[in-house]
Amino acid sequence: SQQGEEDPQALSIQEGENATMNCSYKTSINNLQWYRQNSGRGLVHLILIRSNEREKHSGRLRVTLDTSKKSSSLLITASRAADTASYFCATGGGSRLTFGEGTQLTVNP
Amino acid sequence: GAGVSQSPRYKVAKRGQDVALRCDPISGHVSLFWYQQALGQGPEFLTYFQNEAQLDKSGLPSDRFFAERPEGSVSTLKIQRTQQEDSAVYLCASRSRQGLYEQYFGPGTRLTVT
Predict the structure, then answer these.
(1) Contacts of residue A39, Cβ cutoff 8 Å, sequence gap at least 6
(2) CA gap B92, A87 in Å, rounded
């Protein structure tokens, strides 16, 4: 079963715009990860945020975590066509990852 | 270094056939995971190995699914008497050691049962 939900399910933007996607989860966590999946490179780890962190940056990525609301958001700034992919949040990591259903991002050139 | 590789990349099986899917993890990675991904969904956990020991197989959907990693490196996921509902992408991932959370995924095997 899926850990939670991501919204929106699909997002279409123009190159250069920012993209924000959200993830909600159900159980308490130690950390939350974001992964990207496209047909070219498969599923790739983007960033991990620990439960005692509220915000984390990596390049054009910014992740926030609100453990009181059991939610996280991923912001991609200055999007590029190459950012077109599905984005998944995932919790766990000890013996398994539990993924959300993903947000399909399309960046139009 | 090479990433996680999986073979075959595509497999078409007739209902009732047995299939075997192979995963070569990153060299030296202790942990290995199998996930099943249905179309339009996120991956769902199937099973987890630490070295050759299968520590968690709670995600395997039925006793038709069997996974092994006899020498703590290559792993095989076997599905017996395939059914149409087994059609999915099967993803393998590896992780270098306990205590780290990032998993490295292979390209997957797309299984279609006709």
Answers:
(1) none
(2) 18
Q: Check CB contact of A42 with chain B, cutoff 8 Å.
A: yes
The answer on pLDDT for B25 being more than 90 is yes
The tens digit of pLDDT for each residue in B77-110 reads 999 999 999 999 999 999 987 667 899 999 999 9
Total H helices, total E strands in chain A: 0, 11
Tokens of B63: 């006793």
Spatial CA neighbour of A93 closest among A26, A30, A13: A30
Which residues of chain A are within 8 Å of residue B41 when distances are taken between CB atoms?
2, 101-102
- Joined tokens for residue B103: 């998993």
Under the banding of pLDDT at 50, 70 and 90, the label for residue A95 is: confident
Contact assignment for B102 to A48 by CB distance below 8 Å: yes
Of A42, A45, A102, the CB nearest to B42: A102
The pLDDT value given to residue A1: 43
Q: Give the C-alpha separation, B8 to B109, whole Å.
A: 6
Instruction: Answer positive or negative: Cα dihedral of A107, A59, A25, B51.
Output: positive
What pLDDT is recorded for position A3?
A: 59
Residues A5, A23: contact at Cβ < 8 Å? Answer: yes
